[in-house]
């Protein structure tokens, strides 16, 4: 609670020494119940009778009243909330924190112990002794109430996960997230010059109201080719309207509106309706599920677009070479379309099936997914009759799981049943059978079955891992709901799958420093050619002579899509150069061309990175550049490529968002549109560096910043980067924690002091001085100084023209106002008159104060 000078402040030791001695020399044991007796005879004071050390005489004493405090339970932080302090019933001379029922619920006490709790102050406050071993310690200096509770009383928690009682629904607010891409092209073909530009974007607009999350997805496209004679093509569409709510006691998510069927058994399709789905994200991190991954090789700087049934899910710019996209939402399921749009105009296209690991559930647990509605297309039009679907997975015993489900509608029905087994040393395996019956508009009724086998295994002894391996066989007459809707509305059937093989394998050869990745997808159909996609990647780190930490990678791939083969090999050799840079060679060989590049990449501070390269192909010399910058308000990626006599292309991508709440607003960068985020507040202090991951964010002019892409139902920590803190600021509290529900806008405050420093002498209206030990508080009730001998005080974190109060005898006695002009030299003192609280200082008094600054 004592205000200490900032580092580097020039404070005479004789001003601080008497108070430090007074606080150190005590008679008797420190106790909240027994006041401390100070030996004032050792103090060299002019007025030995004018001393007020009452606030220091009782350890941990807090004056009765209401305080806004952060609650810390066993070092885990809860949101800031009002806490009242009342005189203790056992000792009116001391005070005790009132823990209301709303706070006790957040502590996560087990149900069998809640019945043992007793209450005081008319049943409003918890009796601390009703839980043996529990203790409470207030610390107003850090704005925190520390609670220590024996773990035996609390629900399960882990290092990064809190029980539902501590989940934070956040505050009401609005958000708008966007991902904008712009490209210009200048192409030359057979002396024919074509110029054009393309603008595209997608994102999410949303609102949070209590526990509800309202989201609307949008996408837009603008294309123009100069000289083509065609008008500018442009469109803007709202692709999806959704509202969802987390139901903690069910560990489930309720969704209303437009959605894709979230299923581990049936293929996904778009519908409008309602669903209730067990949410694995609400489980501890080690029990959470699988998220899809998309990988490939870009031959040039390229734009990667991932979509599903017309809706863009993800869009980004990538440099030439292999890429891996691992931050897709884990709620995405089913077949995804991937387009890699190269800057030379060529396009790679393929499909990815978001397979999941074998369907296993912990013993005694039941996971379920329920949905009902009507199928719709991406233009919000109804495509089929009312349906209902449900599926479950039951952990029968240790190692065995039973799962199944059904889709029921007027003309389409499907029933599935399966079993999973944890084979311990031999991995995990599941098998299921799905039977469908579809009555087509043409009057034909098709009945068929589909059989699926899934497997995964870690081979720890040899460093291998089968991430996923699957096989599926479908009879010709088997139809998914998506195929039925396609036949019903279009009279065609584009899939008609027969067999599907999928393998994802990773192997580490530790002795050689080599890592290998194999991915294989093989899909056959009853009525058309098969599609194949497989790739093999090898990577090795090594040392050659004086060159250390060289990286050598080789990737070979084949994409066979709609009867066309796209084969290629990518080779890369990279070595460190300088402090953070690297020089690399890469070569790409495919059926159309061979490309060789030499590149240099480096970082620009903590926020940026770039890559420049030059090379050649059979078509001519080429040059390219890629720059990425993590800005406070957006993630910025820029690309440029040129090939002699062929094309010149420039691209720019902006990925960010805006979040507005009653507590403030800020622009920010974001990777997952519409996701969970945290608004942090530094009390109006601008330019404070906030760090969660990646580059730090700086608070805006209002002292606000938004940290996006927070993990839902996971304890997140956000801190102030003390190494980059401005010289005029001091962080009394530099770390905050939050466990937020999905889509929440959390709010946390940092305790930051920013301002100037000054030495001052305080005089009362009658010419006397405040007692030794009196405290000076600003309007935020934060101590900024303690009165020393002769009314002297060192003030820190003050603002020009600020009004403050001086406290002794447990209350505010008078107020003072700082002058508009503060001394530049830290050794000059201000003379500050302190008026009674009811009196108003006039401008003539303030002018007199400014005129009476003197040099000590």
Question: What does this molecule look like?
Answer:
The chain has 856 residues and is mainly beta. Among the domains are: 13-58 and 755-855, PapC, C-terminal domain (Immunoglobulin-like); 65-155, PapC, N-terminal domain (Ubiquitin-like (UB roll), Roll), CATH 3.10.20; 165-244 and 593-753, Immunoglobulin-like; 292-354, Immunoglobulin-like (Sandwich). The chain contains 5 helices and 57 strands. The chain has a 24-stranded antiparallel beta barrel. Strands 50, 51, 52, 53, 54, 55, 56 and 57 form an 8-stranded mixed sheet that branches. The chain has a 5-stranded mixed sheet with strand order 5-4-3-9-8, with no helix packed on it. Mean pLDDT is 83; it is low at 1-33 and 839-856.
Notable traits:
single chain, 856 residues, mainly beta, Immunoglobulin-like, Ubiquitin-like (UB roll), 8-stranded mixed sheet, 5 helices, 57 strands, 5% helix, globular, cell outer membrane, transmembrane, membrane
């Amino acid at each position: 609670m004592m205000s200490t000078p900032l580092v580097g402040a020039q404070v005479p030791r004789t001003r601080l020494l008497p108070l430090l001695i007074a606080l150190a020399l005590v008679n008797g044991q420190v106790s909240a119940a027994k006041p401390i007796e100070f030996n004032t005879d050792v103090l060299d004071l002019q007025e030995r009778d004018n001393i007020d050390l009452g606030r220091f005489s009782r350890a941990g004493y807090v004056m009765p009243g209401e305080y806004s405090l952060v609650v810390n339970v066993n070092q885990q932080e809860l949101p800031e909330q009002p806490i009242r302090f009342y005189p203790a019933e056992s000792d009116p001379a001391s005070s005790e924190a009132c823990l209301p029922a709303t706070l006790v619920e957040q502590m996560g006490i087990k149900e069998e112990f809640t019945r043992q709790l007793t209450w005081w102050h008319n049943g409003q406050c918890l009796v601390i002794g009703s839980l043996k071993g529990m203790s409470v310690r207030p610390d107003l200096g850090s704005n925190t109430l520390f609670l220590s509770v024996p773990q035996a009383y609390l629900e399960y928690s882990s290092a990064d996960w809190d029980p539902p009682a501590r989940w934070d629904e956040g505050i009401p607010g609005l958000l708008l997230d966007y991902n904008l891409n712009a490209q210009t092209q200048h192409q030359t073909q057979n002396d024919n010059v074509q110029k054009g530009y393309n603008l595209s974007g997608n994102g999410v607009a949303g609102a949070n109201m209590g526990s509800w999350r309202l989201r609307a997805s949008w996408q837009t496209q603008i294309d123009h080719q100069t000289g083509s004679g065609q008008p500018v093509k442009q469109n803007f569409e709202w692709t999806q309207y959704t509202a969802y709510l987390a139901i903690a006691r069910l560990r489930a998510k309720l969704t209303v509106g437009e959605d894709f069927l979230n299923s581990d058994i049936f293929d996904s399709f778009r519908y409008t309706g309602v669903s209730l789905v067990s949410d694995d994200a609400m489980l501890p991190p080690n029990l959470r599920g699988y998220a899809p991954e998309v990988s490939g090789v870009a031959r040039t700087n390229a734009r990667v677009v991932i979509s599903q049934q017309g809706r863009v899910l993800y869009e980004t710019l990538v440099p030439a070479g292999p890429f891996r996209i691992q931050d897709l939402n884990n709620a995405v399921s089913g077949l995804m379309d991937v387009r890699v749009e190269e800057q030379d105009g060529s396009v790679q296209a393929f499909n990815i099936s978001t397979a999941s690991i074998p369907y296993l559930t912990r013993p005694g647990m039941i996971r379920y997914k329920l949905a009902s509605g009507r199928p719709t297309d991406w233009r919000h039009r109804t495509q089929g009759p009312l349906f209902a679907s449900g599926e479950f997975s039951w952990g029968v015993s240790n190692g065995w799981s039973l799962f199944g489900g059904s889709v029921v509608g007027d003309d389409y029905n499907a029933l599935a049943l399966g079993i999973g087994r944890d084979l311990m040393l031999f991995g995990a395996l599941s098998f299921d059978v799905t039977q469908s019956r579809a009555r087509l508009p043409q009057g034909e009724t098709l009945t068929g079955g589909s059989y699926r086998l899934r497997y995964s295994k870690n081979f720890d002894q040899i460093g291998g891992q089968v991430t996923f391996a699957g096989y599926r066989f479908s009879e010709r007459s088997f139809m998914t709901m998506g195929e039925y809707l396609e036949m019903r509305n279009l009279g065609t059937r584009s899939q008609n799958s027969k067999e599907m093989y999928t393998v994802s394998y990773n192997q580490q050869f530790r002795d050689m420093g080599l890592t290998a990745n194999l991915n294989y997808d093989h899909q056959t159909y009853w009525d058309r050619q098969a599609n194949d996609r497989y790739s093999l990647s090898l990577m090795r780190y090594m040392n050659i002579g004086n060159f250390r930490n060289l990286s050598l990678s080789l990737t070979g791939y084949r994409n066979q899509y709609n009867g066309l083969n796209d084969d290629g090999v990518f080779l890369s050799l990279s070595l460190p150069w300088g402090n953070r840079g690297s020089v690399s060679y890469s070569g790409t060989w495919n059926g159309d061309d061979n490309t060789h590049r030499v590149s240099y990449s480096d970082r620009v501070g903590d926020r940026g990175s770039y890559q420049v390269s030059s090379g050649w192909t059979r078509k001519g010399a080429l040059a390219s550049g890629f720059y990425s910058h993590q800005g406070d308000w957006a993630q910025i990626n820029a690309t440029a490529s040129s090939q002699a006599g062929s094309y010149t292309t420039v691209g720019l991508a902006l990925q960010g968002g805006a979040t507005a709440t009653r507590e403030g607003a800020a622009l920010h960068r974001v990777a997952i549109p519409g996701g969970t985020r945290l608004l942090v507040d530094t009390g109006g202090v601008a330019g404070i560096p906030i760090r969660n991951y990646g580059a730090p964010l700086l608070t805006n002019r209002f002292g606000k910043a938004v940290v996006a892409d927070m993990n839902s139902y996971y304890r997140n920590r956000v801190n102030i980067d003390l190494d980059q803190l401005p010289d005029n600021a001091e962080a009394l509290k530099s770390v905050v924690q939050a466990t937020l529900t999905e889509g929440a806008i959390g709010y946390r405050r940092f305790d930051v002091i920013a301002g100037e420093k000054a030495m001052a002498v305080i005089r009362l209206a009658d010419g006397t001085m405040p007692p030794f030990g009196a405290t000076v508080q600003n309007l935020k009730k934060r101590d900024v100084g303690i009165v020393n001998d002769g009314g002297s005080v060192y003030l820190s974190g003050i603002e020009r023209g600020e009004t403050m109060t001086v406290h002794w005898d447990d209350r505010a006695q008078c107020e003072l106002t700082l002058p508009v002009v503060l001394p530049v030299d830290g050794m000059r003192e201000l003379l500050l008159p302190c008026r009674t609280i009811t009196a108003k200082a006039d401008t003539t008094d303030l002018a007199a104060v400014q005129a009476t600054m003197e040099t000590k």
